[in-house]
Amino acid sequence: MNIDLFQQILTVIATVTLAFSGVLQAARHQMDFFGALVLAFVGSVGGGTLRDLLIGATPVFWAVDASYISIIIPTTILSIIVLRFYTQPPKFYLVDIADAAGLALFTILGAQKALAYQLIEPVAVIMGVITGIAGGMIRDVLTPTTPFVMRSEMYALAAIIGVVVYTVVRHYLPETAAMLVGMSVIFILRIAAIYWQIKVPIIKFNNQL
């Protein structure tokens, strides 16, 4: 498959996934349509916007490509309609699965774009993680929710591991295959962390001092 077409397909999937995640977050906090649209928008493009500003890719991607807006608005409306008939499963909350998929897709796409701008691999790793987590952080800050990355959840760590794997294996595999490997690592780690409640050690004062 042509790499440009592959990236376009993944971008559409990631945008839909994180927009849906934003609407689910809005439903959790009983927001109205405007609130859901805001969360869907910032969740989808917030991380990529910050990445583009940092690497000098301006105007930012969604300001010159109307397809993002044309994806987010219908996804928001359709998600609201679907939620009227949806009952959350007891173990895997759909918002977490959608968020894990969006994290995996946008983290690798962010790193890939940074590499396309001839940035060194360590910086590409950072840009990938920012792309993956910043939108979700902004979305959570807009609701009474502590962002995943600020808690003991394996969230940012999963993104870091996956994007490092991607930057390594791309030297040995075709770009498309390397991207799929990196995305798979992030998604599997995140879902495994949710299912088995794997936590990252927290920082705290030693009360025995």
TrEMBL record:
**Residues in Glycine transporter domain copies:** 9-82, 97-170
Membrane-spanning parts: 6-26, 33-54, 66-86, 123-142, 154-173, 179-198
Specify the protein's topology with respect to the membrane.
Answer: Multi-pass membrane protein
Its primary localisation, in coarse terms, equals membrane
> Where is this gene product found?
Cell membrane
Signal sequence annotation: none
Keyword terms, alphabetized: Cell membrane, Membrane, Transmembrane, Transmembrane helix
The record's listing under InterPro entries reads: Gly_transporter (IPR005115)
Provide a GO CC annotation, any one.
Answer: plasma membrane
Does the entry feature the keyword Secreted, yes or no?
no
* Family under the similarity heading: Belongs to the UPF0126 family.
PANTHER family in the record = INNER MEMBRANE PROTEIN, UPF0126 INNER MEMBRANE PROTEIN YADS-RELATED
Question: Know the name of this protein?
Answer: Uncharacterized membrane protein YeiH
